[in-house]
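Practice problem: predict the structure.
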Amino acid sequence: MPKDQPIEGGERSADDLFKSFKEVSITEFFRKNKAHLGYSGKVRSLTTVVHELVTNSLDACEEAGILPDLELNIKQLGVEHYRYSCRDNGPGIPAKHVSRVFGKMLAGTKFHRNIQLRGQQGIGVAGVTMFSQMTTGKPVRIRTSIGDGDVHEIHLLVDVSKNEADIVETKIYKERWRGTEIIGELKGVLFNLSEQGPYEYLRRTAIANPHIRITFIDPEGRKSVFERASKEIPKRPEEVKSHPKGMDVDEISNMAKKTSATRVSSFLENDFSRISKSKVNEIQSKVHFDLKKNPRKLSWSEAEELAKAFEAVDFMAPPIAGLCPIGEAQVRKAVLNILKPEFEAVVERTPAVHSGGVPFQIEVAVAYGGNAGREITDGGMRTEVMRFSNRVPLLFDAGGCALQQAANSVDWKRYGIRDFDNSPFTVFINLISTHIPYTSAGKQSVASDDEIVKEIRMALMDVGRKFNRYHSRKRRDLERAERFNTLMRYSGELAKAISALTGGDEKELEERIKDIVTKKLKFTPQEEPDKKPGKKKKVEEGDEE
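Answer:
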């Protein structure tokens, strides 16, 4: 086409091109990209709803210092059509905040705080409202009370274009109760008892949260109760200041604009952890501007200088007050309570740092025999790897998850597990951090980080060594038992032969032979170990009523 020949139909002006230009709300974005929130697939979508409701209730109860008691009910109304309800005994929600909690995305008490909580983004439970609305056109119903005798019932939808709640109906009535309940409907989802279904999510939640009690009624009317294994409420994690390592220029610049400090030096001391007066002096020697400057007037190039200085200065590791592990004793209680294994081992690593300055900690456990592992259709057993982040089960996207990658990278044969994938074996991995590096907003997979993978591997190799000692001892005991049984089985014939040669009493000789065998092998028949690990029920776990 000649260079100056006009395009067919004529050129369009910039004004014409920008007539269709408009803003899109965050809610509108997620409505069109709901898979980013975990709403993809019929089973996964229902499990995601359960996850968001349980997470919301657990965080509320723990922050208020209340032992969580959750009641979850899923009732089938038609083909791929369900009603769900989740009721907790938490602190309740002040009525004026209900519309923002359940009807506005990126609103909440968590995103702006550097603290270990299950939720981070202020999206989850509002996403449940939106997904219910998208599949049924119906509002969700929220009942809540802060314990003052008034129960507020609010029916609401999400105004997608404005990212705010559209309140359909409100009621206030008297009732002696404190907590929150959400009721809604879903279509195009499916309940089953698979490894990625709601039941398995609740089972794993009970393992990672031994202080919780969950009552679950499934669409078939089966009632499962996961009793709490501990009455110890986890200590409340503390909000921690940002650590200078790993801070980028944009973060420093934004923090400087929001600080109440009047000098950059006091901004560094007050708004960051591990920066003392001596560290401020060291930073001053590495930058070309006066740290007495007002931080709100900090230029981009000066923020760049600070970022480079942070990398050049040695700081203490970030404080671990913001981390709240389950604890070895509590993990052991939960594993014994739910899995009832023949053998278990738990390891809690010391805190470490990822991404330059974010504190994290790893807890792992292994369980063998009993109800450990998962039974497959042909009656065999398969190893299950339970992944958790801040006590929350991760059931999906295992292939791209650092936790699964770390488990797969261990040479389990070195620890006496010849076929890791097909054993009555459960591996528990919990990543604790003030900031979990998820791969997406769906929060089901942890991004690969060298430090995180290394810590998980170290912990797994530690529990692997413990299992190997147990397994080696058990193998020796089995060999000793077989030798004992063989010698005892032939003791009568041996006594008969000796009696024929010596003329001794056959019965007396047999007793003496048995006595010698028992003393030499230091073994009694009562010690004989089980040769097979206990069998696991095929699907259900927990106390069914």
